[in-house]
Amino acid sequence: MLLEYAAIATMIFVTALVAVIAIVLGVLFGPKRPTDKKSMPYESGMNPIGPGTRRVPVRFYLIAVLFILFDIEVVFFVPWALVFKQFVSQSQGFFVFAEMTTFIVILLVGYIYAWKKGALEWE
After folding, report:
1. How far apart are the first and last CA of the chain?
2. From the CB of residue 69, how many other CB atoms can be counted at a distance below 10 Å?
3. Residue 66: how many CB atoms within 10 A of its CB?
4. What is the pTM assigned to this prediction?
5. Domain boundary assignment for the chain
C-alpha cells in the first residue's frame, strides 16, 4: 500500500534536492562584492526617509481575512448549482435547497455582524 505513495515521495525528494542544490550553488558561486550602495534599501531610486518598516493597522488584516472568508464561501455555490438539477429530478430538491438556504443565512448573519461591528469601515 505504501508503494502507491512512492511517486509522491520521489517527487518531494527531487524537488527538495533541486532547491538545496540551487541555494548552495548560489552561495558558493554567486557574486560577493557588497557595497554601501548595494546594502541600502531603495524604493523608486529615492533615498529612504525614516525606518524601513512601519506598523500596519490591524484593520487591513481584518478586512483581508473577511474578504477571504466570504470569497471562499462563494466557491461552494458553483458545485451546488451544477448538481442541483440532478437532485430536483430525484425529488430531493427541497432538502438540497433548504441546506443551501441555511448556508446562505449563516453567511448573511456573519456578514451583517461584521457590518454592524464596523469591520468593513475603511478609514
Report:
1. 56
2. 13
3. 16
4. 0.49
5. 58-116
Tell me the β-bridge partners of 32: none
59 contacts: CB under 8 Å, gap ≥ 6: 122, 123
Question: Average pLDDT for residues 88-94, to the nearest whole number?
Answer: 80
**Residue 122 is which amino acid?**
W
The answer to whether the beta carbons of residues 62 and 119 sit under 8 Å apart is: yes
Q: How many CA atoms lie within 13 A of 100 on its CB side?
A: 17
Residue 102, pLDDT score: 93
Residue in this structure with the C-alpha cell 451546488, named with its chain if needed: 80
Name residue 46's beta-bridge partners.
43
* Most confident among 10-24, 28-42, 90-104, 106-120 (mean pLDDT): 10-24
Query: Do residues 114 and 120 touch, judged by C-beta distance below 8 A?
Result: yes
| % the chain with pLDDT above 90 | 23
| 76-78-79 Cα angle (round to 5) | 80
Q: What share of the chain is helix, strand, coil (3-state, %, to 5)?
A: 70, 0, 30
